[in-house]
Write a structure and sequence with these properties.
Helix content is 49%, strand content 10%. The chain is of the alpha/beta class. The strands form three sheets. It has a six-stranded parallel beta sheet, sandwiched between helices. Strands 1-10 form a two-stranded parallel sheet. Helix 4 runs parallel beside helix 6, helix 7 packs across helix 8 and helix 7 crosses helix 9. The longest helix is centred in the middle third of the chain and has 25 residues.
Length: 332
C-alpha cells in the first residue's frame, strides 16, 4: 500500500498496514529551508518555492502527505487584511482591524485569483503532479471563526461573542463563504483532503461557546466541502471532542495537552485522530529514545496519523521529524 493510500485510509479509519505519519500544519524549519533552498518569505509567495518546501515533507521527512500552506494568512490577505509575510526565522502575521463588528465586510469577488490565493492553488497543482500518486496532497483553510480574528482583531471579535453575539454570527455567515470557496478551489487544484483550522482553543473559546457558535457551523462546513476534513484546534480540547464528534468531520488533529490515551477514548471509534506529538518535548528536544517511546505510545492507543501537534517550531531540527516518520514505519 502506497503512502497516499495509507494516509487517506487512516483518515477514514479504514484498514492500513501501519499508522500513517504526517502533518496537517507547517513542517517548515530553518534547517529544512536551508536543506531545500526554499525559504520564507518566498515559500508563501512563489508557488515553485512553496511546492519545493512542502515536497520535502515526503521526500526528506518521510511523511505520507505533503501540505504547502505554511501560514495562517492566505485567504485573509486575499480579502484585504494587512499581512507581514515574515522571514526565515519568523512566521507571517495577519493583523485585524479591517472593520468593526458592526461594519460591512466587503469580500472581493476576485479574491481567489489574487496572489495570496493563486500561489497556494498553483503549488497544490505542482505537488499533485510531483507526488500525487505516492503521497497524499493536503490543503488548508481557516474557518470563519479564525477569519473573524483577522478581519476584526482578536479582542474585538471575542468580546462581541458576549456583547453582540448576533453580529458575530452575521459576520461568520459572510466569512464562511470565503472558507468554502477557497476549499473548493484547493480540491479542484488537486487536494485529496483539507486541514480545516480554527483557533477555538480553550483560552479563546469555552466549550459552551464552541457549542453555540461553532459546532453546527463545523457540521455545515463538513457537508459543503466535498473531501475529508482534518479539524485542527490547538490546546487542551478534551472538553469539546464530544462536540467535534457531532460535526461529522473525518479527523481531529489534536494537541499534546490532551494525552493520547484520553483523546482516543473521547474520540471513540468513529473519529480519526492525527498528531498529538509535542513540538517542545519531542520535535524540538527529542532524542532517539524519547521519539521512539512517543511513537510506541501513539501506536499502542490507536492514533491513526502520527506526527506533530501543530506547526513545528522554526528552530527545530528537521531530522527529528524524519526520525518520527522512520519510527512509525519501522516499529511494530
Amino acid at each position: 500500500m502506497k503512502p497516499r493510500e495509507i494516509f487517506l485510509n487512516a483518515l477514514e479509519r479504514k484498514p492500513t498496514p501501519r499508522p500513517a505519519t504526517g502533518s496537517a500544519t507547517s513542517i517548515a524549519t530553518m534547517d529544512l529551508m536551508k536543506e531545500t533552498g526554499c525559504s520564507f518569505p518566498e515559500a508563501h509567495l512563489d508557488p515553485e518555492v512553496m511546492a519545493g518546501l512542502a515536497e520535502a515533507g515526503h521526500t526528506l521527512l518521510g511523511f505520507d502527505n505533503v501540505m504547502p500552506l505554511f501560514s495562517v494568512c492566505h485567504e485573509s490577505a486575499a480579502i484585504g487584511c494587512h499581512t507581514d509575510w515574515g522571514a526565515p526565522d519568523r512566521m507571517p502575521d495577519c493583523r485585524g482591524g479591517m472593520t468593526d463588528i458592526e461594519g460591512e465586510i466587503s469580500i472581493p469577488k476576485d479574491f481567489l485569483s489574487r496572489e495570496e490565493c493563486r500561489v497556494p492553488l498553483r503549488a497544490l497543482e505542482i505537488l499533485k503532479t510531483r507526488v500525487g500518486d505516492d503521497a497524499a496532497v493536503v490543503g488548508k483553510v481557516f474557518g470563519p471563526w479564525t477569519l473573524g480574528y483577522h478581519v476584526f482583531g482578536v479582542e474585538e471579535f471575542l468580546i462581541n461573542t458576549i456583547l453582540n453575539p448576533d453580529a458575530v454570527k452575521r459576520a461568520m455567515e459572510t466569512l464562511k463563504n470565503v472558507t468554502v470557496a477557497f476549499a473548493r478551489a484547493q480540491i479542484e487544484a488537486g487536494a485529496d483532503a483539507l486541514c480545516y483550522a480554527d483557533h477555538a482553543t480553550r483560552d479563546l473559546c469555552s466549550p459552551d461557546t464552541y457549542r453555540e457558535f461553532l459546532m453546527d457551523l463545523h457540521r455545515e462546513m463538513n457537508d459543503r466541502i466535498e473531501c475529508p476534513l482534518i479539524l485542527h484546534i490547538c490546546g487542551n480540547t478534551a472538553d469539546r471532542i464530544g462536540y467535534i464528534l457531532e460535526t461529522g468531520m473525518a479527523c481531529f488533529h489534536f494537541d499534546s495537552k490532551v494525552p493520547a490515551r484520553e483523546a482516543r477514548a473521547l474520540a471513540g471509534d468513529r473519529l480519526a485522530l492525527m498528531g498529538g506529538t509535542s513540538n517542545f518535548d519531542i520535535v524540538f528536544h527529542g532524542t532517539p529514545e524519547t521519539i521512539a517511546a512517543d511513537v510506541r505510545e501513539k501506536k499502542a492507543v490507536g492514533i491513526d496519523i502520527i506526527g506533530p501537534e501543530c506547526a513545528v517550531p522554526l528552530n527545530a531540527p528537521w531530522k527529528n521529524l524524519r526520525m518520527i516518520a522512520d519510527e512509525v514505519k519501522n516499529t511494530v
